[in-house]
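Design request, tokens follow.
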């Protein structure tokens, strides 16, 4: 049989060589697109400035901040992504500085807070702040004055630095209540220096979760 004149039988020529430059460019564009999406909606890098969170965070340490909690934490997806809680380490913007602030959430909306004799009380319960060095006191300020009970308004937080003697935070009139729209996210990872590389988890105040004592704000007259 002769196949030379069969129109259905054609020789398959060699495949065209792929353009390496175009392939590389496509890979770079996809990678950059993924990075942009992550930066805008999932996580963003932050650098610690100053000594206000020592000894738990030091100047120039590099962190990753979870942005989904800020974007979705007060929506119907709250049960999936979670929301800000007491003990969380957060990044927020303030007019006091061009740099972002890093602090710890001490009280959330609806809580009452008091600073008395070097200790912090939330909802009339003394906090067990095991992340502070032994003997470190919490002094009052001109916003949270000694022995004064303050109720946190809706959509706001009270934040302190762990280095209580060297931190401009909610105890001061310069900061006061931090509104939710000032927050930029919750810190969840430290990637520099390498000897502290790892996941960061907020502190749990189990004394507040398990207490059956009445809350101060339930007793206050509105």
């Amino acid at each position: 049989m002769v196949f030379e004149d069969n129109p259905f039988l054609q020789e398959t020529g060699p495949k065209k060589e792929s353009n390496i430059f175009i392939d590389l460019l496509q890979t770079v564009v996809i990678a950059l697109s993924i990075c942009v999406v992550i930066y805008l909606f999932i996580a963003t890098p932050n650098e610690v400035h100053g000594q206000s969170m020592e000894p738990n965070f030091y100047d120039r340490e590099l962190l990753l901040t979870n942005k989904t909690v800020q974007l979705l934490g007060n929506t119907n997806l709250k049960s999936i992504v979670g929301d800000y809680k007491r003990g969380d380490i957060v990044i927020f913007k303030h007019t006091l500085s061009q740099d972002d602030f890093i602090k710890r959430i001490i009280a959330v909306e609806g809580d009452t807070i008091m600073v008395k004799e070097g200790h912090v009380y939330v909802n009339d319960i003394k906090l067990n702040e095991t992340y502070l060095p032994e003997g470190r006191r919490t002094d009052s300020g001109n916003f949270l004055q000694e022995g004064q009970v303050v109720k946190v308004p809706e959509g706001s937080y009270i934040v302190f630095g762990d280095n209580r003697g060297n931190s401009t935070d909610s105890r001061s009139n310069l900061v006061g209540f931090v509104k939710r729209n000032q927050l930029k996210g919750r810190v969840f990872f430290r990637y520099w220096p390498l000897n502290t590389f790892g996941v960061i988890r907020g502190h749990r105040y189990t004394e507040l979760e398990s207490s059956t004592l009445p809350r101060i704000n339930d007793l206050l007259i509105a």
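Comment from the thread starter after seeing the answer: thanks! The two ends are 102 Å apart (CA to CA).
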